[in-house]
Amino acid sequence: MTLTGDSLPPQLADSLHTAGLRLTPQRTLILSILNETDEHLDAEGIYDLARSRLPGLNLATVYRTLAVLKHMGLIEQRYFARDHRREYYEAVGKREHYHFTCLGCGKVVEVETPRLWQAQRELGETLGLIFSHACVCFEGYCAECASRAETQEHNPPTESKPCCA
């Protein structure tokens, strides 16, 4: 992965300047990482990738930078499980997608469907709602774990709990 500012939006410096902030090497690097990777990164994962390029970088700076970039709407914070234990970050502007987390092996699979956007549109029209964000948790068992459970004659639990309850 090349970590340069090439994949960053050209108006980024203007946006930061308007907000009274500078385009620091740390902000540039973290945005580059999130724009260029297809990995699901939490703050520690971002830190691990970033410190190879900026050895003096510390984890607290990564957390502060993520908070600033999130506040500015340049990145999104995601949760992949209903317990919301770990936060992952993605650059804004990537295609609309959701995440399925396997309860067996922990694998995260990106899934796409226009149905959730359609549901938001329908609810907006029917109830006069304006959505700014939707949180959807998909959990279950990937094909490998489901197959393994079947061969062991152990069916995976089908209990379903609300994500944000």
Observed structural traits:
single chain; 165 residues; alpha+beta; Arc Repressor Mutant, subunit A; Dna Ligase, domain 1; 2 domains; three-stranded mixed sheet; two-stranded antiparallel ribbon; 6 helices; flat
Summarize the helices and strands and which ones pair or pack.
Blueprint: H1 12-18, H2 25-36, H3 43-51, H4 59-71, E1 75-78, E2 88-91, E3 98-102, E4 108-111, H5 115-127, E5 138-140, H6 143-151
Parallel strand pairs: 3-5
Antiparallel strand pairs: 1-2, 3-4
Characterise the protein shown here.
- The chain has 165 residues and is an alpha+beta fold.
- The protein has 2 domains: 1-94, Winged helix-like DNA-binding domain superfamily/Winged helix DNA-binding domain (Arc Repressor Mutant, subunit A), CATH 1.10.10; 95-165, Dna Ligase, domain 1.
- The protein contains 6 helices and 5 strands; from the N terminus they run ααααββββαβα.
- The protein has helices spanning 12-18, 25-36, 43-51, 59-71, 115-127, 143-151; strands spanning 75-78, 88-91, 98-102, 108-111, 138-140.
- Strands 4-3-5 form a 3-stranded mixed β-sheet, with no helix packed on it. It has a two-stranded antiparallel sheet with strand order 1-2.
- The protein starts with 11 loop residues before the first helix and ends in a 14-residue tail after the last helix.
- The mean pLDDT is 81.
